[in-house]
Automatic annotation (TrEMBL):
Protein name: Nucleoside deaminase
GO biological process, one term: purine nucleoside catabolic process
Assigned keywords, A-Z: Metal-binding, Zinc
GO MF annotation, one: zinc ion binding
Domain CMP/dCMP-type deaminase: 2-118
PANTHER family per UniProt: CMP_DCMP-TYPE DEAMINASE DOMAIN-CONTAINING PROTEIN, CYTOSINE DEAMINASE FAMILY MEMBER
Organism: Oscillibacter hominis
Length: 155
């Protein structure tokens, strides 16, 4: 198993934990120099904060706890492609690399909605663009999303 798959497995496990904790199934892992330095799961319901997505919450907490606001030497692993809000946050912290499993279009298809490549749209119109690797363990991520959204409405 390569490094991307290893950290993506962690992000997917966090997504499963988020669902077990009463939240939507999204997880994120922040990595530097081959080591996971911070993790977070979606907490929109348990924190009563609709902006507490896995990625935005991770950035908020990591930066607040460490004082580090330039993540150009970090990689963020996300179980699903970050939304517009989270992608914007990744621009503001100058994330070096983003790796995600399922895409926003995959999620939208599960919800019978029209999706888009959110992160690409944000990054293409921003002065700073992280390197992006998509589709890592996509099917595993989709299985978690499919199981959750078969029984729950989005938002």
């Amino acid at each position: 198993m390569d490094r991307d798959e290893l950290f993506m497995k962690q992000a997917i496990a966090l997504a499963e934990q988020a669902a077990a904790h009463g939240n939507e199934p999204f997880g994120a892992v922040l990595v530097k120099d081959g080591e996971a330095v911070y993790t977070n799961e979606n907490q929109i319901y348990s924190a009563t904060d609709p902006t507490f997505h896995a990625e935005a919450g991770l950035i908020r907490r990591f930066c607040g706890e460490t004082g580090i606001t330039d993540l150009s030497e970090y990689t963020l692993y996300s179980s699903c492609e970050p939304c517009f809000m989270c992608s914007g946050a990744l621009v503001w912290v100058r994330l070096g690399r983003l790796v995600y499993g399922a895409g926003n279009s995959d999620l939208a298809a599960l919800l019978n909605e029209e999706g888009c490549n959110c992160s690409k749209l944000v990054f293409d119109h921003s002065p700073f663009r992280p390197e992006v690797t998509s589709g890592v363990l996509r099917e595993e991520s989709l299985a978690v999303l499919r199981a959750y959204f078969a029984a729950h409405a989005k938002g």
